[in-house]
């Protein structure tokens, strides 16, 4: 499969796929991963691991033309995975509810995040803890939209933290975004004006999901999400 420099490819896999696809995912795991699956305590966690890691290997195999189990996957110091076989091929993964999504890019780092929009008993607490005063006003302004806005904004912050490879090393309340003209923009990190131009694009896998993809190059063309199973 060819991934041109100006493109980002998006994929979505169901965590409850066909038996044929599940077996393909299992067969794609490396020897070490095959060993690891026998140690999972909960069958549901084992199944999710087989699907998300197996599908990642199947997709990487298509791009790299290397047998899926032989692809060398490593992690940066803060946990972001990459492949030693082609360090120009950047990718990122997210899962929520019954789905896993993948983004692949050859135009620099990419971050992806999805969240199933759901009722949270501690919603107000989470808003209080993770968002700035300005962000809180935006999220809570419209009661009917509050849950939806919260999850959308959450994916914006998390996809950004994943694009830069920080993950939870940088607490989300250190980031301040504005939302204007249907666009999210990163204003400041730890109160310091942010000069890097990251782009935040919305995507949807289902009506009850929020999704954001973060990347750098303005010219990038993002593919329609491809469902595989
Ligand atoms: C890394 C992190 C961002 C993952 O978030 P998550 O919602 O738990 O899980 P997701 O399914 O979206 O992403 C998991 C994948 O991210 C990738 N990942 C792990 N560490 C990463 C890092 N430092 N940077 C980028 N990607 C990372 C991995 O591929 C991982 O999948 P794996 O565990 O199967 O290998 C998370 O651990 C984290 O740091 N979360 C806290 C950030 C936070 O509080 N955000 C609130 C926003 S308001």
What does it look like?
This protein has 229 residues and is an alpha+beta fold. The protein has 2 domains: 7-112, Ribosomal Protein L22, Chain A; 117-207, Ribosomal Protein L22, Chain A. The chain is 32% helix and 28% strand. The chain is built from 6 helices and 13 strands. It has helices spanning 19-28, 31-37, 43-64, 123-130, 133-140, 146-163; strands spanning 7-14, 73-75, 81-83, 90-96, 99-105, 111-116, 175-180, 183-189, 192-193, 199-202, 209-215, 221-222, 226-228. The strands form 4 sheets. Strands 1, 4, 5, 12 and 13 form a 5-stranded mixed β-sheet that branches. A 3-stranded antiparallel β-sheet has the order 6-11-10, covered by helices on one side. Strand 2 (73-75) and strand 3 form a beta hairpin. Helix 1 (19-28) crosses helix 3 (43-64). The protein starts with 6 loop residues before the first strand and ends with a strand. Coenzyme A binds at residues 52, 78-81, 92-95, 113, 130, 154, 157-158, 161-162, 165-168, 172.
């Amino acid at each position: 499969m060819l991934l041109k420099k100006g493109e980002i490819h998006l994929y979505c896999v169901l965590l409850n796929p066909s038996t044929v696809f599940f077996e393909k995912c299992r067969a794609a795991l490396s020897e070490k991963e095959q060993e690891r699956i026998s140690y999972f305590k909960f069958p549901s966690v084992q199944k999710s691991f087989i699907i998300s890691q197996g599908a990642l290997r199947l997709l990487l195999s298509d791009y790299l033309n290397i047998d899926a189990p032989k692809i060398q996957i490593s992690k940066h110091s803060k946990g972001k995975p990459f492949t030693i076989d082609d360090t120009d091929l950047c990718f990122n993964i997210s899962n929520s509810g019954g789905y896993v999504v993948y983004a692949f890019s050859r135009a620099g780092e990419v971050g992806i995040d999805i969240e199933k929009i759901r009722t949270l008993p501690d919603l107000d607490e989470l808003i209080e803890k993770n968002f700035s005063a300005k962000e809180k006003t935006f999220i809570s302004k419209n009661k009917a939209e509050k849950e939806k806005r919260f999850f959308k904004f959450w994916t914006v912050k998390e996809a950004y933290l994943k694009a830069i490879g920080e993950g939870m090393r940088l607490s989300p309340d250190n980031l301040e975004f504005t939302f204007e003209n249907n666009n999210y923009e990163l204003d400041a990190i730890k109160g310091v004006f942010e000069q890097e131009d990251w782009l935040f694009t919305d995507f949807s896998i289902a009506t009850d999901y929020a999704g954001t993809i973060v990347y750098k190059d303005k010219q990038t063309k993002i593919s329609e999400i491809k469902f595989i199973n």
